[in-house]
Every structure is written in C-alpha cells, then in structure tokens.
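wait is this the right file?? whatever heres the structure
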C-alpha cells in the first residue's frame, strides 16, 4: 500500500534549508593588489623653500655674475640655478650683506634687482611631483620606473597577478579560520607554509620561517639572515611588529597581506616598518584587496 503525500510528510522530517550565503568559489573572486607606498611618494606636491633671486636685465652679464655669487647649498643640488634671466642666490634664511646688490651692480656695470621666490626644497621622486615642481622652478628629475608603474597600477602583468592571487588563496586555505603564511622562493616554488599554532610565539610567520630553517638545519643566525633573500611572503592578514621584523632579518623581497590589523599591524595600520630608514633592509609591501 502506497503512502499518501501527507503520510510521507509525517514520516519524513522536513530538511532544513541553509539560508547562509555560500562562500564564493576561488574562480569567482576578484582581487586587486594595492601597493603600500611611502606618504612622500603618494603626494602630488613637495615642500617649497624661499630663496633670494637676482633679476638680470642683460643676459650676457649672467656668465660674469655667476662666479661672484656664493655657491649653492649641497642639499640644493636638484635645482637649476638660472630661469628666464633670474639667478638663485641662496636661501632667504641666510642674510645678505648690506651692500650686496650695489656691489654686484657696480662690478657688472648693469642694474640688478633682488626679490624672493619659492622653489622645490627636495628633489621630486615621481613624474607627477616633477610636473608640479617645474612650474615653480626648474629642477632635476630621474624617474624610478618601478615607482611609476606602482602609481599607475601597471606593476604586475596579468600572468603575475594571477600567480600572486593563487599563492594568497593557498595561504588562506592553510590558515583556515585563522592566519596563514606561505613563503615562495625566487623560482616560484613554495618552500614553507604554516598556519598559526597554539604555542608561544606561534604566529604563522614565525612558524613558517622556523620550519624553513629547520628544513635547512640552520642554527647560525648569520646564515638565517640570508636564507630568504628576495623571497615573496603571502599572509592572510597584516603581520605584527615581531613578525614584520622577522621578515626584515629574513631579507625577503616582497610581502603580500590580506586583512588589515588596525591594532598592531606593522606594515600599514599602526606602523610601517618597511619605511624605517634605520633598518639595514627594506622590502616592498602590497595589500591584496577583494573586490
């Protein structure tokens, strides 16, 4: 005898439907790689400093005038001294002699006028800064191709972008619900990976570095400093100061991290260890942001 639909409903408990949104599959997730650059690099403008400037009506007198002027400060090596018949003398914070203008005018046999002008205090480090600076006063500029690509968002080609995201997703998988770390050598091979561990100093970075050293049976701290030279490190979250400093000693080349750690993050949020000029090694830092 066949059971009715009502009987079946009574016999079979109703299945619960999971209404929680499903986690995106890896192939459906989209990411962008954000470079963490120094604040000075990201600015369009650079500091200005006031200089005394001489206006020379007779351009042929400029050649005779230059030897009579004090030398430019060493920190002003980026500045061109002459612009449109005007010559930089020295910073306005340095007082001029009382008879400075009259003495020069009599030596040259031509009337000179003195005024002040704001000029770039430091050498521009990006093309955008150079465009802004040269409108104030001519200045030297030597473009850094890597920085220009980072600012333009064209540092990684499609193939490298895909590889980077692949390693990051692997770090996510290793970390599970916690943090994960993957270390990749110069040949693109994963040489160490670890999740955080329930032990003292069991941070994912420290564990991965320790595992790699153990694999090479290295106990000498001097050798350790060069074991990771130029390697890439992929982290699910921004490292703390201890882990970030360990990567400095490890001499890694680039660090990619996911979530920011607003309290204690040492690469962007609370501190930027990679910008510490007192350290004898700096690495490039990128944040992987899911769209």
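ok assuming it is, sequence goes like this
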């Amino acid at each position: 005898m066949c059971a009715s639909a009502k009987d079946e409903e009574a016999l079979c408990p109703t299945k619960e439907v999971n209404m929680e949104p499903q986690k995106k599959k890896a192939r459906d997730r989209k990411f962008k790689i954000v470079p963490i650059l120094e604040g000075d690099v990201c600015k369009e403008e650079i500091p200005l400093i006031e200089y005394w400037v001489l206006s020379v009506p007779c351009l042929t007198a400029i050649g005779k005038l230059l030897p009579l002027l004090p030398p430019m400060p060493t920190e002003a090596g980026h500045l061109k001294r002459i612009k449109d018949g005007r010559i930089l003398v020295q910073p306005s914070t340095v007082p001029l002699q009382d008879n400075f203008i009259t003495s020069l005018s009599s030596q040259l046999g031509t009337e000179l006028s003195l005024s002040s002008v704001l000029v770039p205090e430091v050498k521009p480090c990006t093309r955008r800064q150079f465009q802004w600076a040269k409108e104030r006063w001519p200045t030297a500029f030597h473009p850094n191709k890597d920085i220009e690509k980072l600012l333009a968002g064209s540092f990684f080609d499609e193939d490298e972008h895909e590889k980077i995201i692949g390693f990051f997703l692997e770090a996510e998988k290793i970390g599970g619900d916690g943090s994960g770390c993957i270390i990749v050598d110069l040949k693109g091979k994963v040489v160490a990976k670890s999740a955080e561990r329930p032990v003292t100093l069991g941070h994912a970075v420290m564990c991965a570095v320790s595992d790699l050293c153990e694999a090479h049976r290295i106990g000498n701290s001097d050798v350790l400093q060069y074991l990771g030279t130029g390697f890439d490190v992929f982290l699910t979250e921004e490292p703390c100061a201890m882990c970030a400093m360990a990567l400095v000693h490890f001499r890694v080349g680039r660090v990619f991290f996911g979530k920011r750690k607003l309290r204690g993050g040492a690469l962007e949020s609370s501190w930027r260890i990679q910008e510490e000029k007192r350290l004898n090694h700096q690495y490039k830092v990128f944040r992987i942001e899911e769209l």
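The two ends are 57 Å apart (CA to CA). so i think its the right one actually
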